[in-house]
Amino acid sequence: MERKGRELIKGDVKQIIEMLNKALSDEWLAYYQYWIGSKVVAGQMRGQVVAELTEHAGDELRHAGMITDRILQLGGTPVLKPEDWYKLTNCGYDAPEDPAVKPVVKQNIKGEQCAITVYKKLSESLKDKDSISFYMVMEILKDEIEHEDDLMNLLDDMQE
Ligand code: FE
Ligand code: FE
Ligand code: MG
What we know:
Blueprint: H1 13-40, H2 46-73, H3 83-88, H4 101-126, H5 131-159
Helix pairs in contact: 1-2, 1-4, 2-5, 4-5
The structure holds fe (iii) ion (FE) (2 copies) and magnesium ion.
């Protein structure tokens, strides 16, 4: 049977799935960057930084889940191989090679700023094509803005 939900799509479904798979790859890399960062980070205010990075890692993993569920609803295949994350990513991956708190927090701010740009653009291209994915992206965008804000506030506290 045809799925009624898919009739609502006004754009090229394949192209929408491709864009969502790119965002999915970003989320996994963001998840790992936060998660490994929370393990290796050292220095001033460590406990607070670990708590924030761990919370954000959980949010990125949740975003990956939301995007995956939507790709499946659209009849697509979510990225199946981690090696493809690097091929599809918009924002890349910054390894926390310097585990000091400031560089780690700054790397993650850079990642959030890239995510905000990507989701803003994605929301614009989804607006008239797929309103369900559009609302999902807006929800994610709201979290990324909060992430950037939280990290900026942490950095401000450290400068004192
Ligand atoms: Fe995210
Ligand atoms: Fe984020
Ligand atoms: Mg937070």
